[in-house]
Amino acid sequence: MQQRGMVIVGAGQTGGRAALTLREQGYDGRIVLIGDEPAPPYERPPLSKAFLTGKAEAAAFTFAAEDALRKAGIELRAPARAAAIDRGRQEIVLAGGERIPYDRLLLATGRAARRLPLAPAVADRVHYLRTLADADRLKQGLARGGDLVVIGGGFIGLEVAASAVALGCRVTVVELAPRLLARAVPVPLAEIVAARHRAAGVELILNATVRALGVAEGGGLRVELLDGRVLAADHVLAGIGAVPRDRLAAEAGLPVDGGIVVDAMLATSDPMIFAAGDVCAFPCGNGGLARLEAWKNADAQGALAARNMLGAGEAYRELPWFWSDQYELTLQVAGWPERGARLVERSVPGGRLLFHLDAAARLVGVSSIGPASVAKEVLLARMLLERGLSPAAAQLADPAQKLKALLR
Predict the structure, then answer these.
(1) What residues have CB less than 8 Å from 259, skipping those under 6 apart?
(2) One Pfam family this chain carries (predicted)?
């Protein structure tokens, strides 16, 4: 009989971190890591930046190379597709019919780029950015220069826009909302991002809807807007959000609600099955569920899920934190700024640092933008948030008041 052990479906940041953590915690049983990409676990943030511009190769951000996994006794099955979960027999069924038994199962299937409903002739020419293969294809296209139209003014679209400018492309961003980064970034910081892109020569078309995409007479692409404008493009990137890859869980009868529903320990309704990373919807402290699409969340939840698969029983308490590098600027958001009722700004050289206070004057979020020199102040601000401290608004706003002193 085949040995049972720990099986992880999804070989991205979450799955790779979980597999390594199991070994670090002293687990000496079988570990199988199933990934549908041919590459071993790698970090995704460089795909839209350093990899795209040629400043880094995949090896530089592969954190669990095949040799390292082999030495750790972790079986990497890639590329391979998990087709079903047999909960009764505690087995994962692969697309070819092979069955892999598990004592505990982690679903770290992540998310998929949301696709535009397009005819095949056009769909094959539109870029998305989620995988290393996506990034490599986009990189080869942008290396030829020309006009890039980005559909969507979110993080992926704007990071690619900045990279494309560095590669000598002419860039237009089309955004449905009246401003960039409408879902996740406070207005003052989004305005700085917009101004920086315009200064780099990027055309921003806001409050705009794409009506159709087609092939132009010269072989390029036509992007038709609802107001009648037509944009000519050599390349089109769609950055219109992502969807959780929760099909396996749903078909296995596990609760799904905007992601695979888990408890504070990242366990699903089946105590033998856990879920973590971009795909899971977890309790966020206000009675609701949150699903976060961020490197920090994916990494921390992967490690925690591994410990809890071994019986640690730890609750997930990490505060959300994400960043975006565009040009020389780094944008950071931590905590839950959307719960804030008041903004308090602290003057920092070359950037902006905002504290988000709720109606009871409690610190619930921090957001910032600026060059690397702002990083120390931002780190201290995040530490205030992580420790649950809420200094007076006047102290937060006063640049003469050292943030480090407020941590004592």
Answers:
(1) 244, 246, 275, 278, 279, 280, 281, 289, 291
(2) Reductase_C
What is the C-alpha to C-alpha distance for residues 195 and 362, in angstroms, rounded to an integer? 31
For β-strands 99-101 and 91-94, DSSP reports them as antiparallel
Alpha-carbon dihedral 237, 155, 243, 15, rounded to 10 degrees: 110
Where are the domain boundaries for CATH 3.50.50.60 in the chain?
5-112+242-309, 115-238
Within 10 angstroms of residue 90's Cβ, the number of other Cβ atoms is 18
Task: Give the whole-angstrom CA distance, residue 247 versus residue 241.
Answer: 18
Pick the CATH number of 328-406 from 3.30.390.30, 3.40.50.800, 3.30.160.20, 3.50.50.60: 3.30.390.30
The pTM score is 0.95
> Distance from first CA to last CA of the chain, Å, rounded?
58
**Euclidean distance between CA atoms 131 and 128, whole angstroms:** 9
Q: pLDDT by residue (tens digit) across 332-354?
A: 999 999 999 999 999 898 899 99
Cβ atoms of 170 and 148 within 8 Å: the answer is: yes
Please state, in angstroms and rounded to a whole number, the distance separating the CA atoms of residues 30 and 17: 16
Domain range 115-238, CATH architecture: 3-Layer(bba) Sandwich (3.50)
Residues of the chain with CATH 3.30.390.30: 328-406
Q: How far is CA 290 from the centre of its chain?
A: 14
Beta strands in 294-391 (DSSP E): 321-326, 329-335, 342-348, 351-357, 363-370
Instruction: Give the pLDDT confidence of 47-95 residue by residue, as tens digits.
Output: 999 999 999 999 999 999 999 999 999 999 999 999 999 999 999 999 9
CB 29, CB 94: distance < 8 Å = no
Calpha distance 305→283 (Å, rounded): 15
Strands 351-357 and 342-348: antiparallel
Q: Which helix (H) or strand (E) holds 24?
A: helix 13-24
The residue whose two tokens read 């692409």 is 221
Q: Report the candidate in 157, 98, 96, 155 with the shortest Cα–Cα distance to residue 126.
A: 157
The residue to which tokens 């982690």 are assigned: 106
**Token output for 152:** 């969507």
DSSP H or E run through 406: helix 403-406
